[in-house]
Amino acid sequence: MTTELNATYNMQNQRSKSVELTKIVSQNGEVFLTWKDLWVTASSLKNGNKAILKGLTGYARPGELLAIMGPSGCGKSTLLDTIAGRLGSSTRQSGDILINGRKQTLAYGTSAYVTQEDTLMATLTVKEAVYYSAELQLPNSMPKSEKKQIADMTMKEIGLQDAMETRIGGWSGKGISGGQKRRVSICLEILTRPKLLFLDEPTSGLDSAASYHVMKTIASQCQGRTIIASIHQPSAEVFSLFHSLCLLSAGRTVYFGPASAAIEFFALSGYPCPTLQNPSDHFLKTINSDFDQDIEEGPTRRKSTEEVINILIKSYNASDKYGAVQSQVAEICKQEGEVLEKRSHASFATQSLVLTRRSFVNMSRDLGYYWLRLAVYIVIAVGLGTIYYDVGFSIASIQARGSMLMFVATFITFMAIGGFSSFVEELKVFQREKLNGHYGSGSFVIANTLSALPYLLLISLIPGAIAYFLTGLQHGFEHFICFALVLFTCMMLVESLMMIVASIVPNFLMGLITGAGIQGLMCLSGGFFRSPNDLPRIFWKYPLHYVAFHKYAYQGLFKNEFEGLKIHDEHNGKIQLINGEDILGDTWQMNMDYSKWVDIAILLGMVILYRLLFLLFVKTGETVKPAIRSVMSTSPKQINTAEAPLHELAA
Ligand SMILES: Nc1ncnc2c1ncn2[C@@H]1O[C@H](COP(=O)(O)OP(=O)(O)OP(=O)(O)O)[C@@H](O)[C@H]1O
């Protein structure tokens, strides 16, 4: 075991020496990443400011795998998020992050990031997920067979060959294991061999053999690429794959430098790694203050972990390793290297097509997206048909027809929010892929719209026909088509509204409540529960009555039903005919200046407007978030923190 470890460390030493000699000029899209005096604070009303990262300095170079290690909660993910340009708006950052010596925004397609959570499409098999991703990411110029070859090879490299035909699975059904999901997430991001790759805990959920193979695959892709991974507790074998190590404790650097030299650093600082102990175990045990235990120092003396950490930090700040990091960062910063370009990928048309196919398959396999709704709608349609069965032409049928149509336009369309949870899952996948630059928001909107069309047509036509013909509404094909069209456009509208809500409200339950609330208000002002002329003018009539799609849905359905209809009013055995047009004007107070087709056109226009609004919100998020981040970035002096700065610690 010791001979084995020694051999690996010798290998590592040689490799890190050769890496030290690397010239600091970026070529062929290579990425040098530096961060200097990086502070990150989280502020909350309750707890005030809390420093998460405290003056970190470091770098990542092409051809190297940099591991960020430290106890849970030390700031590994925060450091990764900060240097990847993905820090949330609840935190403030200061310090310089440079790419090839330049200040560049690093997000949306310039790098790949494997997040800690696996956000995958549960209904797809592993093979389908990887194939679709290859088609989305790899350029159009590459033949389809080559894309498949790359996908197959990457799946094999990452050890997924036996799980290729298994569905990924999620809350709706068991699929592949957690460790396999982790590997799928990594596989999707390394398909294009990105020049800069961030991995947040790539080995969590994997056994030691799988961890080694996955990390070996990642390490083998280092040539010309910069890879940064946060990792919890690597085995000795995995540790031997790292070129550089950044060891953190409570947001401070305990060690930054060649991974192979860390053992020597700990030994020189007075905490040598015991023989036969995994070095990473030793490092983490020494600097983990969560379960504060005194650390033995000789037969009599014991020190608290906090004291040990401070000794190590002082030792690091006084060491030549610290000086080497500072001069390496300064050296890299001097170069004005290449500007990081977005990767080339499939064209907009190909992406829209592939996404439409993928979304269609997902909708067909996810019972909650449309099938359950179709079943419930059929039951409700039969209910409506039996309650209003053969409604007739009496005076009483005016109210019955009105109520039935109002129910269709309001409650049946309202239930379109039933697919919200499935949409939110799809949206999460879209957000991950968009952030990693796989495709843009436009392709997603087009794909979601096109793939939903057949299902929405199905659930408008089948339950629509049952309710329509059982009730005995106006005869004629044109009347039924108009009825189904209103139902179809209203359901599309509700789905579009929920898309907008999902892009603004971050949480599924909050989104559901918000969407239901908005529809409740619109439905109240639609002109049925209170006649249009009786609606209070402020807010309810102007503007809500005109903004609410319910107004146009009621008008379309009511005009379709009452125009040309003769109601039989019987008095003393005499039948008097009442024109439907009179009922529309007098009873329902409908706007008769334009036809029902104009109402449908307005509804269709609203669908397009809502989808464009969703696109706008997503696009605005793309530009506003980096802007918020740069506003939130302050000079180090502005960060008011109770923590002692590093140089004071070092003194
Ligand atoms: N937005 C935030 N607001 C408040 N505290 C935060 C925020 N983000 C991170 N923190 C805190 O900062 C600390 C570091 O979090 P981070 O997720 O970076 O740790 P980590 O080392 O990646 O942990 P783990 O290994 O368990 O994933 C934690 O104590 C966390 O609670």
TrEMBL record:
Name used for this protein in its record: ABC transporter G family member 11
GO molecular function list: ABC-type transporter activity; ATP binding; ATP hydrolysis activity
Record flagged with keyword Transferase: no
Gene3D superfamilies xref list: P-loop containing nucleotide triphosphate hydrolases
Cellular component GO terms, alphabetical: membrane
Main location: membrane
Record has tRNA-binding as a keyword: no
UniProt xrefs under InterPro entries: AAA+_ATPase, ABC2_TM, ABC_transporter-like_ATP-bd, ABC_transporter-like_CS, ABCG_dom, P-loop_NTPase, Plant_ABCG
Top-level taxon: Eukaryota
PANTHER family xref list: ABC TRANSPORTER G FAMILY MEMBER 11, ABC TRANSPORTER G FAMILY MEMBER 11-LIKE
Localization terms from the record: Membrane
Family indicated by similarity: Belongs to the ABC transporter superfamily. ABCG family. Eye pigment precursor importer (TC 3.A.1.204) subfamily.
Span of domain ABC transporter: 33-275
TM stretches of this protein: 370-391, 403-424, 444-468, 480-502, 508-529, 597-618
Bilayer topology annotation: Multi-pass membrane protein
Keywords assigned by UniProt, alphabetized: ATP-binding, Membrane, Nucleotide-binding, Transmembrane, Transmembrane helix, Transport
